[in-house]
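pls design
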């Protein structure tokens, strides 16, 4: 039950983010979720799209440096403490969270995307705690 996340390495300069997102849009790809991390010299654009294989192919053909990472999606309620509850389950299961960001699904509301050190163990812990996880097909 994982989601394919595409990370695009881009220079940290004016217009680069606009360029890569326009390139993706010109190939009729809709970005459903994104996160941006930066340093002084470069940025990492992390995206989730419906057709990850198409995104990967298009970006590689465009000369972009990318990586593909399996991440997980956990449903999150729109109420105080829901993020803390998910993180507590992961902590108690000895799962290291590397990063997280939000995603609003087309079908069932909001999800948090998590990059963790053990997807299978995290999914097992979350499911046991009654927290819904979703794969790529379920999100789209």
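designed seq:
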């Amino acid at each position: 039950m994982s989601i394919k996340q595409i990370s695009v390495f881009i220079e940290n300069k004016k217009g680069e983010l606009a360029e890569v997102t326009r390139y993706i849009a010109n190939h009729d790809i809709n970005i459903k979720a994104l996160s941006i991390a930066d340093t002084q010299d470069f940025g990492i654009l992390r995206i989730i799209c419906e057709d990850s294989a198409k995104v990967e192919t298009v970006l590689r053909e465009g000369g972009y440096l990318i990586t593909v990472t399996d991440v997980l999606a956990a449903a999150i309620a729109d109420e105080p403490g829901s993020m803390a509850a998910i993180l507590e389950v992961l902590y108690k299961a000895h799962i290291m969270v590397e990063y997280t960001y939000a995603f609003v699904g087309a079908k069932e509301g909001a999800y948090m995307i998590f990059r963790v050190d053990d997807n299978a163990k995290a999914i097992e812990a979350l499911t046991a705690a009654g927290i819904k996880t979703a794969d790529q097909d379920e999100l789209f």
